[in-house]
Amino acid sequence: MPVDHYENFPVASLLLPARLRRPIEAIYHFARAADDVADEGSLTACERQQQLGIYFNALERIEAGQDCAPAFANLAATVREWQLPVPLLRDLLLAFAQDIVKTRYADFAELHDYCRRSANPVGRLLLHLAGRTDDDACRCSDAVCTGLQLANFWQDVALDWGKGRVYLPQSDLVRFGVREDDIRDARCPPAWQALMEFQVARADALLREGIPLVRVLPGRLGWEIRLTILGGLRILEKIRATGGDVFRHRPTLRPADWLTMSLRAPFIARASRPAHT
Predict the structure, then answer these.
(1) pLDDT one-digit tens code per residue, 199-210
(2) Does this model's pTM top 0.70?
């Protein structure tokens, strides 16, 4: 689907069954627009919070079965038709609201809790659309979504620094002897390379932990998830190839990468392994 942002991973792509494209687009547009309120433009923190309040209010009205503003009509119809749990959508808004006021994370547990609200609800909503919400499927989905979120953090270290944010856990910076000055000055000493290798391995293992999901979801949806996981793994592969220098070599997916991922897709089910945290 056409979007105004660079996207690493498939969004309502042609691989998806046609019946799922419209609800996924509705969820995506809601999440993307709310995320932009927290991230883009020149609004003050207070103004961003006020704007997000409109989204919270819309969810309350949708949950209560009341009419809402036309901008949320597609989402409301999707929630009603597919019986989607509104708390998952609210978790996304809570994560976006957190981004307005929180710019550092003490340790991985704190960052993981953020991912639980900023990324994992999207996967769980997709499982609801697919009719597969058992515990094993949710666990695999959470691993994939958290792994993708981490891959996005690691590729965007420089971009996030420009917004005043550091998603690398502070305890890991101390452990590897990396200072925020290294990020500010785009330095990649051995300590930085070791830190990034550790973070890449962490995200890689989570993505692989979620691979069994491709055997659970049927047909084209399963292939969509294969390419999504492979997209995350490919980004991590590119970070490794530069020694963690995401300042001068921000990894993105190009046509040749999509060809590589397509060739790997039939064999991905063999690539799972336990998560590393």
Answers:
(1) 999 999 999 999
(2) yes
pLDDT in tens, 12-53: 466 678 888 899 999 999 999 999 999 888 899 999 999 999
pLDDT confidence band for 230 (50 / 70 / 90): very high
Average the pLDDT over each of 28-42, 93-107, 137-151 and give the range with the smallest value: 28-42
DSSP the chain: ---SS--SS-SS-TTS-HHHHHHHHHHHHHHHHHHHHHHSSS--HHHHHHHHHHHHHHHHHHHTT----GGGHHHHHHHHHHT--HHHHHHHHHHHHHHHH----SSHHHHHHHHHHHTHHHHHHHHHHHT---HHHHHHHHHHHHHHHHHHHHHTHHHHHHTT---S-HHHHHHHT--HHHHHTT---HHHHHHHHHHHHHHHHHHHHTTTHHHHS-HHHHHHHHHHHHHHHHHHHHHHHTTT-TTT------HHHHHHHHHHGGGGGG-------
